[in-house]
């Protein structure tokens, strides 16, 4: 069964500090992995996408890494800001197989990040 | 205007009532989804559609039905609402990853449903 596990479940940090969120997955065959940011009461918004051949990708203060061998990804946030307070969701999609498949994404439960001033 | 629009944004209803949540999109995507979000459980897929004539059950489809009226419209119905269907509901759209698409999900602002 395809699964995505995220850790920690929640995290509290001080403004200006760095943090790293983890994502482990068992989705197979792997197609791509996305990190989404969800502000409270809003819909998630994509931060970055990682494909099999990519190890690192940055989007401003957000840097995602992917280790396809160990099936792990991380999202590193540098110099955190109050606006980074949100839930961060790891979403992994499977590759379409010869018999079908449809890239249905598998969602992690998210990491809730709170940045304090 | 938002790319993905959900109506209503908030709804309070009573047990046994029929409820419809509507979703429309201007992204031109073929794929549309309905998700439910509960605290601590993340987003769970209710139904999805890859084409106007295509409807598929997700992991928690019991008690729900959907209708894909057009490429841009996908509605979710609760035929007889019950209190444990109280949740935040999201509609999303995407194109297909590969074949020139990114597979990115674009979400609406959510519909908060309370069943008393």
Structure described in brief:
The complex is a heterodimer of chains A (117) and B (116). With 117 residues, chain A is mainly β.
Question: How many angstroms does the end-to-end distance of chain A come to?
Answer: 41 Å
For the largest beta-sheet of chain B, the strand count, sense and barrel status come to:
7 strands, mixed
> With helices defined by DSSP (H or I, 4 residues minimum), what is the helix count of chain B?
0
Compute the gyration radius of chain B: what is it? Answer: 14 Å
Strand fraction of chain B: over 45%
How much is the average pLDDT of chain B? Answer: 94
Secondary structural class of chain B: mainly beta
Write the layout of secondary structure elements.
The complex is a heterodimer of chains A (117) and B (116).
Chain A: E1 4-7, E2 10-14, E3 19-25, E4 30-38, E5 45-51, E6 56-59, E7 62-67, E8 72-77, E9 86-94, E10 105-107, E11 111-116
Parallel strand pairs in A: 2-11
Antiparallel strand pairs in A: 1-3, 3-8, 4-5, 4-9, 6-7, 7-8, 9-10, 9-11
Chain B: E1 4-7, E2 10-13, E3 19-25, E4 31-38, E5 42-51, E6 54-57, E7 65-70, E8 73-78, E9 87-94, E10 106-107, E11 111-115
Parallel strand pairs in B: 2-11
Antiparallel strand pairs in B: 1-3, 3-8, 4-5, 4-9, 5-6, 7-8, 9-10, 9-11
């Amino acid at each position: 069964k395809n699964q995505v596990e995220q850790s920690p479940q929640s995290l509290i940090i001080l403004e200006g500090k760095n943090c790293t969120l983890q994502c482990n997955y068992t989705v197979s065959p792997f197609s791509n992995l996305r990190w989404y940011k969800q502000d409270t009461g809003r819909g998630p918004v994509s931060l970055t996408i990682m494909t099999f051949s990519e190890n690192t990708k940055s989007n401003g203060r957000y840097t995602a890494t992917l280790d396809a061998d160990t099936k792990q990804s991380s999202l590193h946030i540098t110099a955190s800001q109050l606006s980074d307070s949100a839930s961060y969701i790891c979403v992994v999609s499977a590759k379409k197989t010869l018999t079908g498949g449809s890239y249905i994404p598998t969602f992690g439960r998210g990491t809730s990040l709170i940045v304090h001033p | 205007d938002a790319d993905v629009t959900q109506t209503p944004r908030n709804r309070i209803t009573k047990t046994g009532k029929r409820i419809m949540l509507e979703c429309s999109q201007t992204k031109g995507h073929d794929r549309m989804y309905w998700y439910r979000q509960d605290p601590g459980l993340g987003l769970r897929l209710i139904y999805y559609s890859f084409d106007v004539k295509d409807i598929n059950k997700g992991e928690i489809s019991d008690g729900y039905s959907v209708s894909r009226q057009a490429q841009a419209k996908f509605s979710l119905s609760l035929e007889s609402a019950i209190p444990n269907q109280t949740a935040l509901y999201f509609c999303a759209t995407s194109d297909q990853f590969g074949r020139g698409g990114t597979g990115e999900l674009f979400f609406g602002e959510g519909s908060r449903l309370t069943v008393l």
